[in-house]
Design brief:
globular, Glutaredoxin, 8 strands, alpha+beta, 6 helices
Length: about 190
Amino acid sequence: MKLLLLTVLLAGTCMNKEGEKTVVDENPIVKQSVHQYKVKDLSGKEFDFSSLKGKKVMIVNTASKCGLTPQYKQLEAIYEKYKDQNFVIIGFPSNDFMHQEPGTNEEIAEFCQKNYGVSFPMMDKVEVKGDNKCEIYKFLTQKSQNGLEDNSVKWNFQKYLIDENGYLVKVIAPTTEPDDKEIIEWIEAK
């Protein structure tokens, strides 16, 4: 019995070059960065997230026919206020929640510009949940990729806060306003 216990204890350890025991995690979580992704924007051009190195990023899934759609106004306001301070918002239109984003990319772009003057980058319409979830939302929602937590996109306008190194640091509920004190303090923190 003692030999079995010793074998079990040693199975998860190894010796480093100094002869010290170290524990080996057989299922390590490798924190990945959003900077590895490339996506298409609303006009079909490639958008490389590596171009955002050194910037704080808010990623938000959007919809034009949702009760939360007026959040576009606040998103645009904080983008305008902080865009010259290494902050950017990236919008991902999605039709995943009660078909509240039925338009084409061209219609979405026109709606956002006409109604809210959106100038922050808007990406190609994607799926943010389910079997066809796009790669960047797999990253955002799976702890095995983001290193922070497993989560699911609850509704339109869920916000993901990404630090300057491309790491997920916080998930913000859809109903939390974009200019909420917690978000503004995060943007302004050095």
